[in-house]
Every structure is written in C-alpha cells, then in structure tokens.
Design brief:
alpha/beta, six-stranded mixed β-sheet
Length: 341
C-alpha cells in the first residue's frame, strides 16, 4: 500500500515540536504544532491548509509568524485549531502588527480559528483585507471528537491535562485508494488530476453505475466514459486507511492515559512526547510531562504499529538512546499479541 500522507517531525527530538503531514499527489499538507519551522522549506509551508495546535506554550506556537509571513498576499484560507482560550491567543498574535496596507491586496487571504472547548467548537474568521478584524459573528457548534472532516479523512481531538488544556490529535483515512498504474494503459488512460476526482467520487459513495469521465490527451476523443464501479474494479486497489496520532505535553494520569490510548488505538504511527527518562518520573509529574516508559506504555496499550518519541528535555543530550530503550521495554510489556514493531 502506498500511503496517502507521509508525516515527519520537522525538528530533532531536543528541539521544538512540529509534525508536517504532506499528502501524496496533492499540493497540500497539515501541521500539528507550530514550533520553530525555519527548517521546513517555504514550498512545504505554502502547502499548509490546516494547523492543529496542542497548546499555546511558546515552543508549540512560535512558528506562527513565519507561516503568516509566507501566506500573506496569497489567495488562500488557513484554518487553525487549538485549546480553550485559543481565539484570544490568535487575536493577540495578529494585533502585534500594523495592517494598514493589506486593504490594497488583490488576494483574499483569511484565517479561520477554531477553539476546542469542553462543550463547543467556537470558530471565528479573520480576513486579511480588513486587517484581520472579524467581519462575521463567531460560530459555535456542539463539540464532538471529530473537529475536521472531508470525504476521505477526519481529524479527531481529545482534551488532555498539561496543567492547562492540551489537545491530542488523530488523523485517519476512511479507506485508502491505490491506483494500479498497470491498469491504466489498457484503457488508454494516463495519470492526471482526474485521479483525485475519481477518488473523491469513491469517498463520496457515488453510485457505481454512474458515468465517470476521464479527459484524453491522445487521439480524437476529448473524454473517455466509464461506469464508476467498472473503472474502480480495473484500476483501484482499496485497502484500510492510515491512522496517525500526535500527542504532546500531558501528565501521566489515569484520565489522560485513557484519553490517549483511546485516541491512538490501532494507529499506524504514533508521535508522542517523552520529556524525561523514567528515573525522573517525579519531575515529569511536577512539570506535567511524560517519561519515555510512560510513552511506551501508552503506545503498547493502544496497540500502535509504530511510534516515534520527541520533545526530550535538553538535560539528556548524551542519553538520547535511553529514551528508545525505556519506551520499547514498556511497549513490549503492554502491546497486544500480534502487533509488530
């Protein structure tokens, strides 16, 4: 199976958190946390359409300015998600600059920010052309685990305790569609933008008997027409979708563990913070962070196929290998039988 998205941490384990998730064959991506993003190329930053912030401590939000700087003057909408109090944080960042010239911009850049509260999702839109002063009223909807949804995937959230609310996130495909390129040539088809429309038709549950048109670049035909179900049988391999979970900054408590395990259950890849080694569990509790062993325990109980640790305290610069050792030992104790490394 060729995955639809390829998540990668943008910094080393001792540096600011940030997970970039680009999408295969699409010029778009998502970010989870916005620490220092200076190592992320501008061409990748310009793909970002959604950003999911765990909490607004500086090391998780400082990259907001660079993101904003690169997106200004572009026809683009950016959607930010964050914890309770997030709208005031975003407004404070935007209020730190003077916007007297943006009314002359031809492009209509805007920011939508959603605050994930205990009972509601509160969304406010900030248009660039008005100096990021909202020109519509805030929209409140009852909160459910899913905070972002499109035909092919969802992003779910869980509120965790970091002495302040900290959000854990999970991105999950409904199912994965792989295109069998060997099946294209016999039909006289070539790879192109139509493949995304084809996938969307399948994700949307379109009638298999409906006609699907594919543009032609060769011969006299401008369009080839197929039954959607027939075309799917010949060129598509449908398999279970990917699931990737991102957990940053939370104390190891019973409530947090239950929330994190439920969110990460069965993930293909879990990215999880581990600020301290197990010998410093008292300090980890005081600072509302996880140890390596606690992170491994969560990964094991959730039955994840793979996990990556990040956000190490700088006090362990010469002991990076111990994080993996302690986490793997705990993971192997708790993982369900049959789950592979």
């Amino acid at each position: 199976m060729q995955p639809s998205f390829h998540p990668r941490l943008i910094n080393g384990p001792f540096d600011d958190p940030g997970l970039f998730v680009p999408f295969q064959f699409e010029k778009r991506g998502m970010m989870f946390d916005l620490g220092d993003i200076s190592r992320l190329p501008a061409k990748d930053i310009l793909k970002i359409g959604q950003v999911f912030i765990t909490h607004t401590h500086m090391d998780h939000m400082v990259g907001f300015d660079r993101l904003l700087r690169l997106l200004l003057g572009r026809d683009k909408s950016l959607h930010l998600y964050g914890p309770e109090g997030f709208l005031k944080n975003v407004e404070g960042k935007l209020a730190g600059y003077t916007w007297n010239l943006v009314k002359h911009y031809d492009a209509r850049f805007s920011i939508a920010a959603s605050e994930i509260g205990p009972t509601h999702l509160s969304t406010q839109v900030y248009p660039c052309h008005s100096g990021f002063i909202p020109d519509t009223t805030m929209v409140k909807t009852p909160r459910c685990p899913v905070v972002f949804k499109e035909p092919g995937l969802t992003v779910s959230a869980a509120i965790l305790d970091h002495s302040i609310p900290s959000i854990g996130y999970c991105i999950e495909e409904r199912f994965h569609i792989n295109i069998r390129k060997a099946g294209l040539a016999p039909l006289g088809l070539e790879v192109g933008p139509w493949i995304q429309s084809f996938k969307e038709a399948l994700f949307n549950g379109q009638d298999p008997e409906s006609v699907f048109e594919v543009p032609c670049s060769k011969g006299n035909e401008t369009m080839k027409r197929f039954g959607l179900g027939e075309l799917s049988t010949q060129i598509a391999l449908i398999t279970p979708g990917q699931k990737v979970t991102y957990l940053a900054d939370a104390i190891y408590s019973r409530q947090n563990e239950e929330e994190m395990v439920a969110l990460a259950m069965g993930s293909d890849h879990l990215f999880i913070e581990a600020a301290f080694l197990d010998r410093d569990s008292t300090l980890a509790e005081k600072k509302y962070h996880l140890t390596a062993g606690q992170a491994g325990t969560i990964a094991g109980k959730a039955g994840v196929k793979r996990f990556t640790l990040f956000h190490f305290s700088p006090r362990y610069q010469d002991e990076e290998h111990r994080f993996r050792q302690e986490a793997m030992a705990a993971y192997n104790r708790y993982r369900p039988s049959g789950v592979q490394d």
